[in-house]
Design a protein that fits this description.
The protein is mainly α and about 110 residues long. The protein has one domain. Helix 2 packs antiparallel against helix 3.
Length: about 110
């Protein structure tokens, strides 16, 4: 959505470039959080290790079932986070398109 009557959204307004860069840097410093592929890979490895431990008799089956359920919640949490991020990105792209259309219409005298 356009801000300040400029026809530009926050994501493209030059006055906010520094804030966007700082936010992007901050997001990249979160380590494993925010990197869903790494999180899923780690959880997959832990599931495999848990299965091996159950088969080797190192972990009780009932305990493993509970741990597996908790890890499944983590997997679902990552999936929900991905969907939310995707929706935010689509909304931002839609706002950009709307702003461009408004600019075009204004330039043509349709606004």
């Amino acid at each position: 959505m356009a801000i300040d009557g400029s026809g530009l959204c926050y994501g493209h307004h030059p006055d906010h470039a520094g804030a966007r860069r700082r936010a992007a840097r901050k997001g990249g410093k979160r380590g494993g959080r925010g990197r869903p592929v790494a999180e899923i890979s780690e959880l997959k490895q832990r599931f495999e290790e848990l299965a091996e431990d159950v088969l080797d008799g190192k972990v009780d089956r009932a305990d493993a079932a509970i741990v597996g359920q908790l890890w499944n919640y983590a997997v679902r949490s990552v999936a929900v986070g991905l969907k939310a991020r995707e929706q935010q990105e689509l909304e931002a792209r839609l706002e950009q398109l709307e702003a461009l259309l408004e600019q075009r219409d204004e330039a043509r005298g349709w606004g």
